[in-house]
Prior knowledge:
The protein is of the alpha+beta class. It has helices spanning 9-25, 31-42, 48-53, 64-95, 116-130, 144-147, 186-198, 239-254, 302-307, 324-332, 345-348, and strands at 134-135, 141-143, 167-169, 178-180, 203-212, 224-234, 260-267, 270-281, 289-300, 316-323. It is 38% helix and 20% strand.
Amino acid sequence: MDQTSQPGAAAAHQALEDLKADIEGAVLDTADAIDAYRIRYLSRKQGQITALMKRIPEVAPEDRKAFGQAINAAKQTVEERLEAATAALAGSAATSAAPADLTLPGRLQPEGSLHPITQAQRLITRVFENYGFDVAEGPEIEDDWHNFSALNFPPDHPARDMQDTFFIEDAEQDHGGILLRTHTSPVQIRVMEEVMKDGEPPIRVIVPGRVYRNEAISYKSYCLFHQVEGLYVDEGVTMADLKQILHAFARTLFGEDVRMRFRPSFFPFTEPSAEVDIWWKDENLPGGGRWMEILGCGMVDPNVLEGVGIDSEKYTGYAFGMGIERIAMLRFGIDDIRILYENDVRFLEQFS
Length: 352
Ligand code: DAH
């Protein structure tokens, strides 16, 4: 091959051989060496790879293709060596660093915490789990039957207006609507239906969950909140059992000397029904405190039991339901429910 017809051809070939040798030979044991290597070969403007590409025209036309391919191979070697050297350096930094000084104070990592509602919910469920209750859950999108009718709310009865409902499908016919559940009580029905498929009471469940109401938002009410429902059905369950367990619950949450009272009330699904208040001590109030309502409860109405096929002559039951936010606010001294839903880290940090 007559390379003299291309005056620079021999020099270009030599430059390629030199480049390959340099690329193979360079020692890449420090971050600086790696950086310099990258710039020397790969820099778009001053890199030696680019420089050599520009010399392709000096090579005999029939050799140009092979010459270009050789440059590309060299470039690939550079990239592979860079990658290997970077990885090796990272690995050795991890393993061969100076021995750790064990006397140094630890570095504090910011630590998340459970939301106060979650904390209150777990606390409440744990108390009842200790008394042998199982935890159950149900859907937040509910049908009219479970949320109202099966709980003895007659169609068009004003008791339905006790709870302003978000309807998803507001069916005209009875039992037809789909809605966001307004309380956790429908899960009572679902649990009893499930048990009655192939069993009998006793039934003892605690049901935490989220509920929704179409209410004006204020410091004390929000369009969504959380409840815990309790249900106990067995032979010979009485109001005395209900009072006893709620009293034990209040003592665990609010202290041994907690004062509580039962006030007669009305719920369609219990008869008799009551609301429970606890005495909230507050020096700033005249009288040194005030009664705060914490839950609703009662003996499960025989209509509700019969509706799910439980013999109300043989079995009786009690039920109760409480708002978790209310309990969390009392326990943690929070005076505006909305702050629980703002997710302001400065607020949440206080509960770790
Ligand atoms: N579901 C009622 C509400 O949201 C609370 C309630 C009252 C639940 C009495 C019960 C009960 O299980 O027995 O207002």
